[in-house]
Design the sequence.
């Protein structure tokens, strides 16, 4: 655990002095990060742990509370104990916060952006686009797509909607793997693909 110092965490950095502090911890791999335009909370997409089976553990996105602990490595999805970890820390697990929204096990949900304008259309305003890099250790591959999760009043409000797919060929081989996502100044969704070595740009067709 000494090697985990200030890892699996979101750090807050003072850009003037360079001083840092842990904003939230127990987040195994918080790659996608953005501010919620409605609640002003910090949100992250987290790539969770492996080797507990095809259907565990769900990747997730969640609001992040200052000083909050989210389980890694002692528990997952709140207070479900990972029995592989020794020594156990029941006092810390008791404080673990359950994430807001599951994104599927082994989807490798890495990129996330919350939509702050109606440039892509009103249906997307306030919701989240997520780049799912895709599974590497699952019998039936999952992920390999970009999804949209609708929000209402600053919280997820429905099932994920696929918006960019087709990254696996008919043999299950990856032709591309989406990672980072962001809305550009011309209201297009940019998607970084680190296998296709391209950036895709999605736009809403003119009406």
Sequence:
């Amino acid at each position: 655990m000494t090697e985990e110092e200030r890892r699996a965490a979101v750090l807050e950095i003072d850009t003037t002095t360079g001083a840092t502090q842990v904003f939230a911890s127990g987040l195994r791999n918080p790659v996608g990060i953005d501010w919620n335009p409605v609640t002003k909370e910090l949100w992250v997409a987290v790539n969770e742990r492996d080797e507990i089976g095809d259907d565990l553990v769900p990747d997730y996105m969640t609001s992040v509370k200052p000083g909050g602990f989210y389980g890694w490595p002692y528990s997952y999805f709140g207070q479900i104990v990972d029995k592989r970890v020794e020594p156990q820390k029941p006092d810390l697990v008791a404080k673990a916060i359950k994430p807001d929204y599951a994104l599927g096990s082994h989807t490798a949900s890495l990129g996330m952006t919350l939509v702050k304008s109606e440039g892509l259309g009103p249906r997307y305003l306030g919701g989240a686009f997520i780049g799912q890099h895709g599974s590497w250790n699952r019998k039936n591959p999952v992920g390999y797509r970009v999804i949209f999760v609708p929000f209402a009043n600053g919280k997820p409000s429905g099932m994920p909607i696929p918006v960019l797919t087709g990254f696996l060929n008919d043999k299950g081989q990856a032709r591309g793997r989406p990672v980072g996502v962001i809305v550009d100044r011309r209201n297009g969704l940019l998607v970084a693909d680190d296998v296709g070595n391209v950036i895709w740009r999605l736009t809403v067709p003119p009406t």
